[in-house]
Specification:
By secondary structure, the protein is of the alpha+beta class. The protein has two helices and 14 strands; from the N terminus they run αβββββββββββαβββ. A hairpin with an 8-residue loop joins strand 4 and strand 5. It is globular, with a radius of gyration of 16 Å. The N terminus is likely disordered.
Amino acid sequence: MPKVFVAARHFSLRLAALAWVFLAGCSEKYPNLPEQYPVAGRITLDGKPLPDAGIMFLPRGDTRGTGAFGMSDKEGKYTLKTDHGGPGAPEGEYAVTISRVVNRDGTPYVPKPDVAEAGERETLPAFYHDSMKTVLSAKVPKGGDTVNFDLTSKR
């Protein structure tokens, strides 16, 4: 992948993270936010836990809210929260992306504000991490749910 596209994608992820931080304290200002329900699960790749993966639930159709996100731990477990800082996600249908970016040496990539870095690479296929190509989806019912993702290296 050309370096320009990798840099643009990382810029987009950093911009989204900045927006989440900015909006984290805004829930009192927006009393009409949809109710959120607990969502957690486990991400595996080829049957093994996938640690340090970012997961995003992106609203589809009439689903209210701005989506939800989380990070998997060493056992592949994640818990969603929203950009407003609350746990869970609103009821509805979602496109899901899962991304695992590593440094050149294979260690987990941790973004640092205002630092241009080279050498990061995505370890998952585009059909998991690219919001325009993802094959992953989820439905969050009232009351919440456990949503597991069993990924494979090849499709």
